Amino acid sequence: MRDTRFPRLSRTSEPTASKPTVVSEPATSKPTASEPTASSRTLRLSGTVDDSIVDGPGIRFAIFAQGCARRCPGCHNPQALDVDGGRLVSIDDLWQRICANPLLTGITLSGGEPFEQPKPLLTLAGLARAHALTVWAYSGYRYEELLAGQPSAAARTLLLACDVLVDGPFVAALASFDLKWRGSSNQRIIDVAASQAHDTVILLNI
Ligand code: SF4
Questions:
Q1: Which tens digit of pLDDT belongs to each residue from 109-158?
Q2: What lines the ligand 1 site, CB under 6 Å?
Q3: Which of 10, 42, 58, 140 would bridge 70 by S-S if both were Cys, CB 3.0 to 4.6 A apart?
Q4: CA angle 21, 38, 156 (to 5 degrees)
Q5: What is the CA radius of gyration of the chain?
C-alpha cells in the first residue's frame, strides 16, 4: 500500500532478480472457490524487497501481499490488486529468508492490502517480534477501521501485532516525494502501542 515508491514497487511486481527464489507452491497454483486464498502459513505474494531502506527505518525485509479489494482511484500498483495474482509462498520460506540477513532492522508488510491476508502475516509478525525485529505495516484502511475489526477480526489482531501502521489510501493529489516513509500527506505514521496505551491515535515521532 506504500504506493509512491515507484521504483520499489516495480521491482517487486516484475520478474526481476529481487523476487523470491524460494516458492513453496507452483507459480500456476490458484485457489479454487472452495479453498482459502491463504492459510495461516501460506501467503499470496506480489513480491519482496529483501533489503529495503525506504519502507521504514533501517534495513527492512518488505513483503508485498497480493490482492486488494479497495480499488482506490489512481492506484499505481494495479498488478497487486488481483486476489488470484502473484503466487503462493510459505511463511516458513519467507522466514528463512529473513533469518538469512542478520543486518535487518525489521519487516514491513505492504501490498496490495496486507490486512486482507492477516493470518499468515500475523504468523510472520509474531516470529519477527519474537526475534527483536520491528514490524511496520502499510494499509489502505485507516487505523480506526482496522481497530474496529475491518475488514476482519483477524485484521485487528494483526494491527495490534505491529509496531507502526502507516494508514490510509494513497491519494495521488496529495502525493509527494518529500514525505518520509509515506506516499501522500493524508497517510499517518502511527505508533500502535502508544495509541493503544492512550486510547487515541499517537503519531510516531520522526
Ligand atoms: S489500498 Fe488503494 S492504493 Fe493501496 S493497493 Fe489497494 S487500491 Fe491500491
A1: 999 999 999 999 999 999 999 999 999 999 999 999 999 999 999 999 99
A2: 1, 3, 68, 70-72, 75, 77, 80-81, 111-113, 140, 169-170
A3: 140
A4: 115
A5: 15
